[in-house]
Write a structure and sequence with these properties.
The chain has 312 residues and is of the alpha/beta class. Helix content is 33%, strand content 26%. The protein has a six-stranded parallel β-sheet, sandwiched between helices. Strands 9-14-11-12-13-10 form a six-stranded antiparallel β-sheet, with helices on one face. InterPro entries: FAD_synthase, Riboflavin_kinase, Riboflavin_kinase_bac, Riboflavin_kinase_bac/euk, Riboflavin_kinase_dom_sf, Rossmann-like_a/b/a_fold.
Length: 312
C-alpha cells in the first residue's frame, strides 16, 4: 500500500481510481465491508483502490479537547488499512483550507487530483463547509464530472449499527468481548517502550511503559493482555492503562504492561498490547504494600483467565 500524505499537483492516477473517504477509526467490520466493496470494484474495473483519510480527524479539528477518544492511533490505522489490500492511502492534513472548502471545490479536487471514476461512501457521509455535501449531492456531481457513486449501507450486529462510536462505548464499558466482535480482532494499542521510574521493578513487577499518544484513551483500568514483541514472540501479562494515582500525580495516560515469564530489555522496542479481559478499574492505594498485593491478585486473575481460555 502506498502511503501519500500530500495531494499531488496533477492527477495521481492517470487511469482513474475507485475511492472511498472517511475516518476509518478502528477499521471495524463495517469499515471492512466498505473496503471489500472498494477492492472488488477496483479489480473489476482495472483501477486503483484508494482510501482517503484526514489527520487530525475533522471532529478533532473542530472540537479540539472536547473530541471523543480515538479507537486507534494514526499509525495503527495505517497498519490496519494496509492489511486490507487497498492500493493507496491518502492521509491528508485537515486544516483551515479543507475546513473552509465548499462541497463543489472538494468534488473538483477529487476529480482533478485523484481522477475518481467510482466513489463509494457510507450512508451518513457528509463533506464540505458546514457539511453541505451528501450522497445526493455526489450523485448530481457525478453526472456532471463523469464518475459513479455507490452507497455503502450500514453493517449491523444484533440490530446495532457498527460504528466507531459503538466500539468506543463498548471499550469505555469494558466489554472487550463485544469489541472483539465489532473489530473482528482484539482491541490493541502499540508504541515504543520508554524508560520509566522503575517503580514496578522495585515492587517485583517490572513493566514495559508505553506513552499513549492519543489525546485521550478509549479505555482505562487493569486488564489481562497479550504483548507481541518486534520479534513476533507473544507473552501473556497484565496491564494498567491510566494515570497511576498510587505512584505519582499525573495527567498523561500511561500504558504499563507486566509480562509473565519474561526477563530482558525492551527499551526502544515497538510492542503491541492486545486487551483480552478487563479485571478492574484503576484506583489509588494507601501505600505501596497494598498496591503490591493488588498486583499479585491481578496477575493471578489474568493467569486464571488465560488458563481457562486455553482449556475451554
Amino acid at each position: 500500500m502506498r502511503l501519500i500524505r500530500y495531494l499531488p499537483d496533477g492527477q495521481a492516477f492517470p487511469n482513474g481510481s475507485v475511492l472511498t473517504i472517511g475516518n476509518f477509526d478502528g477499521v471495524h467490520v463495517g469499515h471492512r465491508m466498505v473496503l471489500s466493496a472498494l477492492i472488488e470494484q477496483a479489480k473489476s474495473l482495472g483501477l486503483q483502490a484508494v482510501v482517503m483519510c484526514f489527520e487530525p480527524q475533522p471532529i478533532e479539528y473542530f472540537r479540539a479537547e472536547a473530541a471523543p477518544a480515538r479507537v486507534s492511533t494514526a499509525r495503527d490505522k495505517i497498519e490496519q488499512l494496509s492489511e486490507t489490500g487497498v492500493d493507496a492511502l491518502y492521509l491528508v492534513r485537515f486544516n483551515d483550507l479543507l475546513a473552509n472548502m465548499s462541497a463543489g471545490q472538494f468534488v473538483e479536487m477529487l476529480v482533478q487530483r485523484l481522477n475518481v471514476q467510482l466513489l463509494i461512501v457510507g450512508d451518513d457521509f457528509c463533506f464540505g463547509k458546514n457539511r453541505q455535501g451528501n450522497f445526493e449531492y455526489l450523485k448530481v456531481a457525478g453526472e456532471k464530472y463523469g464518475f459513479s457513486v455507490q452507497r455503502s449501507h450500514s453493517f449491523k450486529i444484533e440490530n446495532e449499527r457498527v460504528s466507531s462510536t459503538l466500539v468506543r462505548r463498548a471499550l469505555e464499558n469494558g466489554r472487550l468481548d463485544k469489541v472483539a466482535v465489532y473489530l473482528n480482532r482484539r482491541f490493541s494499542m502499540s508504541g515504543r517502550v520508554m524508560h520509566g521510574h522503575k517503580r514496578g521493578r522495585e515492587l517485583g513487577f517490572p513493566t514495559a511503559n508505553i506513552r499513549v499518544k492519543n489525546r485521550k484513551t478509549p479505555l482505562k483500568g487493569v486488564f489481562a493482555v497479550t504483548i507481541t514483541l518486534e520479534s513476533g514472540v507473544v507473552y501473556k501479562g497484565v496491564a494498567n492503562v491510566g494515570t497511576r494515582p498510587s505512584i505519582e500525580e499525573a495527567t498523561a495516560v500511561l500504558l504499563e504492561a507486566h509480562l509473565f515469564e519474561f526477563s530482558g530489555d525492551l527499551y526502544g522496542q515497538r510492542v503491541v498490547v492486545a486487551f483480552a479481559k478487563k479485571l478492574r478499574e484503576e484506583k489509588k492505594f494507601e501505600n505501596l504494600e497494598q498496591l503490591t498485593q493488588q498486583i499479585l491478585i491481578d496477575s493471578e486473575q489474568a493467569k486464571t483467565y488465560f488458563n481457562q481460555t486455553l482449556t475451554s
